[in-house]
Amino acid sequence: MNCNYHIQNQISFICLAPHKCQNQRKLCDECFQEHGVEVQFLIPINGLQEIVKKKFQELKLGDISEISVQRINFKSMLSQSQSKFKQILDQFSESAQYIFDMIELQTKSYVHLINQNINPAELSNYDLEILIQILKGESINDWIEQKNIYLNKLEELKVYWDQEEKLFISNIQDKLRGLLSINEQQSSKFTGQTKEIQKSYFQFKALQITTTEQMSRNEKQNFVKDNSNLRIDSIIEDKREPEDLTNLEQIQHLKWVGKYGQNNKKIGLWEATWQGEKIQRVGGEYSFDGKKQGKWIEIIENYQILAQVFKVGEYVRGQKIGFWKYVYENKEMYKLINQFNNNRGGGVYSTEGLKIGKWIELSKGFWKYSQVTHQGEYHNGKKVGRWDIFNRKYRSGSSSKIFQQNNNLEKQYISGGGSYDEAGAEFKIGYWVEMMDILNSDCQIMTSGRYQNGKKIGRWNLYNKKSSMQKKIITIFWKKLYQWWWVI
User: Fold this and answer.
1) What stretch of H or E contains 85?
2) What are phi and psi of 257, to 5 degrees?
3) Residue 282 backbone dihedrals phi, psi, to 5 degrees
4) Dist. CA 163–CA 473, nearest whole Å
5) What is the structure's pLDDT at 333?
6) Which candidate, 27, 7, 6, places its Cα nearest to that of 16?
7) Which residues have C-beta within 8 Å of that of residue 379, sequence separation ≥ 6?
8) I want to staple 470 with a disulfide (CB 3.0 to 4.6 A). Which of 272, 339, 430, 474 is the partner?
9) How far apart are CA 487 and CA 410, in angstroms?
10) What's the Cα-to-Cα distance from 479 to each of 170, 463, 464, rounded to whole Å?
């Protein structure tokens, strides 16, 4: 083939120089003189194919054995997953069937005993004792309460399973969409930082889902989950940091609505919306210079459908002051907490905006089925002295303090809480028992051990406390899902 620029000459070389050539990469002898490229970047035209073949062999581009192994492993993984899912479903079904059969059998025994119309003198002592207990109201009331506990627990598990199934399917579909759009996504450029986003409104926090968020600083904030945009916010305020949203439901559903004044600062009334609807009374006023002022109702950091808790208090020039309280299910938290002690939910901020005195705080993962509070004292914004943990059970509404008793979890109260140093460094010291995030109303995972200057030392133990009522059902999940727990 002849050169396009010197028709009388044949192409002799291919140029590999790392720059965009003014001439074509196909060069004749005369092009070579004009091209001005070093000899090491030239390949004779009849040697290019051999070099390319060697490169293919070096990179093993024609070797599909690795792909075959991956294909086999993937099919094996899907087959194993299918078998595991079937096993869990079968066990779930067997456990539920066991509970229903037990309830039905006990109910029939009562009905048969009452309807058999037999002379009391002919009854066995056992059946006669049952009839007497029914007349007294003891036996039948105990059975009704126990039956309701079983049915409520089954309903909780049904809701949990349904939510987890929907979440699993949604995440798999998101992953597949991301996989099928890799080429498109590779052409998009993202800048900024990556954070964890938690979807944590399920009863078992070990099943918490973690995704990532990428934020662009060029006047827009982009929340991305598994290569799919969740929302894009415009950054209007000058020098404003992007919103620190790490809750997946809030990213999807929460919006703040209000006006901007001079210098793009928030002014006047701002209100929160959820899926386009106003969250009743949530929000407050900004002053002319963009600072929160007066009474405000705010949502907690973990706010979501099953954690609709609000913080109520006052701002002065952008700082919280005075008493702030929690409101949950349209009740002030201290009214709920007062069922078992005389403290109030929330606490007091100083004129400098620092927490002081006695406080009752919600756990980071507070939600409907894990109503855990931490109670202790602040000094100049730092935790000091003894802090205790309280757990309000959702089913009965009862609350119990988690006491520390000789490191013995077999007694009536489980261990919990510990002490901070008195110097204000907020170091944990001495013996502590802490709740892990895996928690629902009747299932508590605890760790216990010692702190020295805020760092764990020595042996730490892990405990699982669960009520006997859920043993038949929940044990399956613990055995299948939490085999990885260990004791140091």
Assistant:
1) helix 65-115
2) -120, 130
3) -80, 125
4) 18
5) 52
6) 27
7) 356, 424
8) 474
9) 17
10) 26, 14, 12
Query: Can you list the positions of beta strands (E) in 363-398?
Result: 371-379, 382-392
Domain coordinates in residue numbering, the chain: 13-59, 96-182, 291-488
> Which pLDDT value is given to residue 61?
74
For residues 221 and 215, give the distance between their C-alpha atoms in angstroms, rounded to a whole number: 5
Amino acid at 182: I
> What pLDDT, on the 0 to 100 scale, is given for residue 440?
57
Structure tokens at 162: 């349904």
Q: What pLDDT does 277 receive? A: 92
The per-residue b/e assignment along 199-213, b for 16 or more CB within 10 angstroms, e otherwise, is bbbbbbbbbebebeb
Q: How far apart are alpha carbons 23 and 14 in whole angstroms?
A: 11
User: pTM of the entire structure?
Assistant: 0.50
Cβ atoms 31, 5 nearer than 8 A:
yes
Phi, psi of 431 (to 5 degrees): -75, 130
Name the amino acid, one letter, at 6: H
Residue 386's Cβ-side half-sphere holds a number of Cα atoms within 13 Å equal to 6
Sequence letter at residue 216:
S
Query: How far is the CA of 453 from the CAs of 422, 425, 428, 457, in angstroms?
Result: 11, 9, 6, 10
Residue 400: its H or E element? strand 399-402
Question: How far is it, in rounded angstroms, from Cα 88 to Cα 91?
Answer: 5
**Cβ atoms 346, 311 nearer than 8 A:** yes
> Residue type for 2, please?
N
Instruction: Give the DSSP per-residue string, 275-304.
Output: TTEEEEEEEEEE-TTS-EEEEEEEE-TT-B
C-alpha span between 374 and 417 (Å, rounded): 8
List of the chain residues with pLDDT < 50: 183-194, 196-218, 239, 241, 334, 336-344, 396-414, 467-488
Q: 3-class DSSP state for residue 406?
A: coil
Q: Are 252 and 230 in contact (CB under 8 A)?
A: yes
> Which tokens hold the place of 219?
């006047």
Other CB atoms within a 10 A radius of the CB of residue 313 amount to 20
| Cβ neighbours, 10 Å, residue 149 | 16
Quickly tell me which residue has 């109030």 as its tokens: 344
